[in-house]
Amino acid sequence: MGMTLIEKILSRHSKYNVVKPNDIIDVEIDVRAARDFGGANVVKNLRDNQLQVIDSSKTVFTFDCNPGGSDQKYAVNQHLCRQYARENNVGLFDVNAGIGTHLLVEQGLAYPGCTAVSTDSHANILGAIGAFGQGMGDQDIAVAWAKGKVWFKVPESVKIILKGKRPTNVSAKDIILNLLATFGANKLLGYSIELCGDEVSRLTLDERITIASMGTEMGAIIILISPNTEIIDYCEARSKHKFEILEADSDAVYSQIFEIDMSKFVPMVSLPGKPHDAVSVEKVKKTKIDSAFLGSCTNGRIEDMHIAANILKGRKVAPGVILKIVPATDEIWKQCLHEGFLSIFKEAGALISNAGCAGCAEGQVGQNGIGEITISTGNRNFPGKQGKGNVYLSSPAVVVASAVAGYITTPDDIPSQPAIFSASEKKSLTSDTKERGKTRKPTVIEGKVWFIKEDNIDTDMIFHNRYLAITDISQMGQYTFDNLKGYENFAKQASKGDIVVVQKNFGSGSSRQQAVDCFKSLGISAILAESFGAIYERNAINAALPILTYQSLESLELQNGDTIRLNFISGEVLNLRNQKSQNINPFFEVQAEIYQNDGIF
User: Fold this and answer.
1) pTM attached to this predicted model
2) 3-state secondary structure of 278
């Protein structure tokens, strides 16, 4: 039986010649990165556990979340990482370099067939070059820095074959938004996706990065695209060495194979709040906007800048609208300078920032305010992620055309006169190391249930990014769920020992460890979900926060406020109100071991 592409990459980096789905293996990591907000916690974990960096040549910091160091807490964390880098000969891409995942490719650190981890939940961008990239929490990254490897559960694979001819007005961003509209945020949760087809094989590097970037928003482990000759030549020139190109075996086994006619794809827009809630741009045309953002790890590439320059040349951004442009890397920024794009952008009235993630980080270029309507090329528009306003997601062409028009539109439908704000228009400004235990921990618990009947509760809803500079776990609990509508007072009302029960894809989104640690801070004893975001699952297990999955809880007739008894080892759940029981998925062996060890360290 053959192996899929993800299985081949992981087996080549393990002690096994063959691996299969759900195998838990140690994986050698070729590139190990930490960002500016996660880096300080990585350093803390290493120092607290008296660990050293095993190979500094494969280890880097990337400062891309807060490239200006404009927030005092970020500046402190960045300085701490700089000092650690000097002391341990660790590479560092500082605030002027750009987005870390892009730099790994640009600088030749990542290449087809390699493995890489980062505190960036979009490290799976490396699927664009046929490499394994994965976002992980700061504990995982610290282990990777110290040991050169981390454990990983081999995911099941699906294949998506795009058939038919790609329409001329459909961009790479439109391709991934069409796929998101088809599969949603959890239908492919935890899968490795291989994207194939004649049109896929012709995608440029920049287009592949755009598509791979939003695998996280689909709930996938990664979207892998086999490299073509152009990608191979680029990566060999950047990495300065040859490498073996891995492809799936002809008899590889896939959980599912989907064939989709991409000739029916249309330009798309994600409605505010959910990246997967994508509709045809025609359905939201003429929606008035306040601002537009071109950048992020999804669309800050030179091809995107070409598109922007072609639309903006000889035009102006609409009155009352601000267009913010942030190249992905400093190399792209300099190319914009040399090709005259920066002059075009400035003449049009756009704001240009130094390279970085920008809008995804609080306080950076691309954030919006209460009541503000933004159209963005970002990958996320979760409530509060890019500010307090409403964010639509779309392609660079639609974003820039909309900035000129003053409302959402396409490049072929820009009006001769832009829409302007009337004097009567008003916006609403209403805002909505302890010592490890020496005795065995209990494997049977009882607790009051918080039954939250929602799918896709993301990490910004659990622990908002405005609190990411907090490193003291004892201070995290008070902010739990304060960005989840209807549960803003959860932290004040929850009691130690309570059990949280949710639905699908809990913890989707970023790699932040704080979204796990906030529950530990409150003393929450367990979380039950139909499924978890892949990074969140790792973070919770590594932190010894009991999490379990279930197929159904119908037999329990569960109500909010019930008290249940839960057995981690057998998976039995008993509702003490009505004495009804049901079995769910118990701890797996590694999870039980980490739990009894009070964490991966």
Assistant:
1) 0.85
2) strand
